[in-house]
Write a structure and sequence with these properties.
binds guanosine-5'-diphosphate, 32% helix, binds magnesium ion, alpha/beta, 9 helices, GMP Synthetase, Chain A, domain 3, 2 domains
């Protein structure tokens, strides 16, 4: 029997789940997009933009990291929607190998500390101090970092700028050694585990937030009614669901202008992300009080 050549010792491969937590607006979704290099999670300067969990996959030769972006932990509002979101934040902390807790440089208030209290022991936590690009005198970061680092044990503390892409490799370098050894969990070219249908809804919702800002009622949502792929063309029918007739008028705008701008911007982003042509039709529907109905929430897949 001929002996097979001895393979060279394979380098260790690691794979695991990393959850990104932090109060709204600290830059979690921006960080996820930056790490993955594609726009997966929608961002806005309005808190609460991310309502469901979005994953982003980073594949390197030695490791595959699945990041989970959580909706910000909400403690101010008490509606059913917020309770469902809080449950999903808590759920996100279960099957997790590493937690990245994001805070904003020079800002750590009681809302941040409330998030910190959610983090249970036994899972390594990395503190990412984001938006360091906004701090001119970097020396000011040192006492701030010392104060936040005193709140609990951190495996690493890394100043970053998600917007500028600063220290992304440092962050990954701190994460990878903490992951279990194992084969990749997904294909090397997958960037996310969420499907195109979901991404389409998220991109449309982002444009709504961008265009309407504070005019946008808190409970507005997007539903994809139809998603058909035909060769390189995706035909998508979407509904924007609002609470009241008056809100419908705001979304549509004078002569339909607002809706046109929103839909065009969403379609462009979809075409970029999906790498093909998109035919997008958008309707605005009125559904009264859905944010306070547990049944609607379940149908939309929030909560458990
Ligand atoms: P999330 O609610 O934690 O997911 O926060 P987002 O990712 O939606 O970001 C909230 C806001 O902060 C957006 O306006 C981002 O453009 C901005 N932002 C995120 N990261 C940075 C950063 O590193 N520097 C600066 N200057 N702004 C950032
Ligand atoms: Mg977000």
């Amino acid at each position: 029997m001929s002996k097979r050549p001895v393979p060279e010792a394979a380098p260790t491969h690691r794979a695991g789940n990393v959850v990104i937590v932090g109060r709204p607006n600290v830059g979690k979704s921006t960080l996820l997009n930056r790490l993955v290099g594609t726009k997966i999670s929608i961002t806005s300067d309005k808190p609460q933009t991310t309502r469901q969990q979005v994953t982003g996959i980073v594949t390197r030769a030695d490791a595959q990291v699945v990041f989970v972006d959580t909706p910000g932990y909400q403690i101010e509002h008490r509606s059913v929607l917020n309770r469902a979101m809080n449950r999903s934040v808590a759920a996100g902390l279960e099957r997790v190998d590493v937690v990245v807790w994001v805070v904003e440089a020079l800002v750590c208030d009681e809302r941040d500390e409330a998030v910190a209290r959610l983090l249970r022991g036994g899972i390594p936590v990395i503190l990412a101090v984001n938006k360091t690009d906004t701090v001119k005198d970097k020396k000011r970061l040192l006492p701030f970092i010392a104060r936040v680092a005193g709140l609990r044990d951190f495996t690493a503390v890394i100043p970053i700028s998600a917007a500028k892409g600063w220290q992304m490799n440092d962050l990954l370098g701190a994460i990878v050694p903490l992951l279990p050894e194992g084969p990749p969990l997904h294909d090397a070219d997958d960037v996310t585990t969420v499907n195109e249908r979901f991404l389409a809804a998220e991109l449309l919702r982002e444009k709504l937030f961008r265009q309407l800002g504070d005019e946008l009622p808190y409970a507005t949502t997007v539903e994809i009614e139809r998603f058909q792929e035909n060769g390189n063309l995706r035909s998508i029918q979407a509904s924007i669901v609002v609470d009241r007739e008056g809100q419908k008028a705001i979304v549509i705008g004078k002569g339909g202008q607002k809706l046109k701008v929103i839909a065009t911007a969403a379609r462009r982003d979809m075409e970029r992300l999906f790498g093909g042509k998109v035919f997008l039709e958008v309707w605005v529907k009125v559904r009264r009080g859905w944010a306070d109905s547990d049944a609607s929430l379940r149908r939309l897949g929030y909560g458990n």
